[in-house]
Amino acid sequence: MVHGPARPYDPGGAVTYSFASIIQDAEKARWRIEDVISCIHDIDFSRDFLPDALAKADALEFLDPVARQRVNHIRAHSYVQLFALVERFILPFAMTQAGAALHESAEELLALMQFGEEEAKHIALFERFAQAFEFGFGTPCEFIGPAAEIVGSVMTEDPLGVALATLHIEWMTQQHYLHSVRGDPDIDPRYKSLLRHHWIEEAQHARLDVLLIERLAGRESAHGCRRATDAYIRIFDQLAALLDQQVELDLDAFTRAHGSLTDAERDRWRAVQRPAYRDAFVLAGVNHPRFRAVQQRCFPGCSSKIEAASARWAAG
Ligand SMILES: [Fe+2]
Ligand SMILES: [Fe+2]
Fold it and tell me: 31, 49, 144, 221: which has the fewest Cβ within 10 Å?
């Protein structure tokens, strides 16, 4: 039985944990993929999956309730596919860092190997969800890609910048679950359980990533920290552009599944859904107080770059 993150944590403030404590807590929080698979196969297409705070289907006022639920399901599909995409660069990043730890710290090595194994499990789980979803939804929902090209582009960036992007994603995951998913009584409990299991293990990842960032940033010059901040911003510039493409793919999926829309309705969809994607996946991370606290502590002098990027992303 999985209850929640194994212990409170405060990655924004003074670090009070270690690689050894993360290993212990990760073992307590761990679940098996078989424990969650049944949730996926019994998913109830008569209910919403994703909280409307994230899906923003109700803001498409020209759609009737049945059509809005179609939008909710399309958004729930892209939601987990987006995690599967970013985990495809987080995983090799963690393995590269594990390789670097091989001759330095057995505890760090083990913590990073656990991290990588969990991300591999999440990717497998989300792929199984996508298969079950397509069967239940009835028509394909396309997702941005090709994944290998996007991942390849991120992996050419500065490793400390990738670490900062990873921290953003981990805090964003906490924000979504705690503020939108956990307290929503209306969404399908099986989809909610899928997100709950993911959230539990991501809590350990946020702590581990803080330790990694402290180590990597501690070795960098001021110039190196600025370079890493620029890399982080490029990663999310790329993601923001991809999210705009996803809005078009969602429109296509809706048209296939439910019927055509007028040009005015398509424009209204874009006006609602583009900021909804950015709020969920870009602004929820960059503006998270815990992310900002680590960024300010480990990257002194770089906050104005982050502020400017956040304002640009908010403007669309
Ligand atoms: Fe994950
Ligand atoms: Fe993670």
Answer: 221
